[in-house]
Amino acid sequence: MSLGILITIIDIALIVHAARSGRFMPWGFIILFLPGIGALAYVLVELAPAWFRSRGVSRARGQIAGALDPTRRYRQLRDELDIVDTVANRAALGEECLTLGKFDEALGQYEAILAKPIGEEPGFMVGKARAEFGLENAAAAIATLDALKAKWPDYQSADAHLLYAVALEKAGRADEALASYEDVARYYPGAEPRVRQAQLLQRLGRKAEAKEIAADVARTLSRAPAHVRRNQTQWLAAAKQIAG
What we know:
Layout: H1 3-20, H2 24-33, H3 37-52, H4 55-68, H5 72-83, H6 87-100, H7 103-114, H8 122-134, H9 138-151, H10 158-170, H11 174-185, H12 192-203, H13 207-222, H14 226-231, H15 233-243
Helix pairs in contact: 1-2, 2-3, 3-4, 5-6, 6-7, 6-8, 7-8, 8-9, 9-10, 10-11, 11-12, 12-13, 12-15, 13-15
């Protein structure tokens, strides 16, 4: 029996299995249009975890499934929300929408959450601001984060603070953005705020200040452990480009 015939037989058997077990969408098409490779993916994602039941296999299953079907979790979360409309379900769906770039839907989810008496939480306002920024409405994101700060003055989030600084820059409020970048850089776990500050200074024609900050970032990261440099590759490269 030739290899091609064998692969065809295996593909057909797995397509039938997928159909009978309720997994035909999307696996039937994946196996059909990716002969051999699709079958291997189906075995790794759907069958192997049931055989081995190990934590590592389950993790691998999630990664492969996410790569083959990026909207799978989104659809699951939509179904869960249809069954039970809770703040937790809406928040999970809103976060997944942000990940997928579905900013309109994400904004709708966070607005619905914040309209509920038990939905008034600073994290949900940050989610709303992220959605607004994703929709290229920097002014709305700034207003949302200003409202958050007024309502919860003690709330602190490095990510939200950085988002505020970037939104200020996008809104053309350069001086405020520079001050915000400097503030958040004091506690943000990474070089992004300082590099963004240097990039903005460079665009404003303040090249000497930009180079000084970028050179300091590049020097600091160059001395950091290898795993830190890997995580900061993008910002290290940007800093070196500005420093010259």
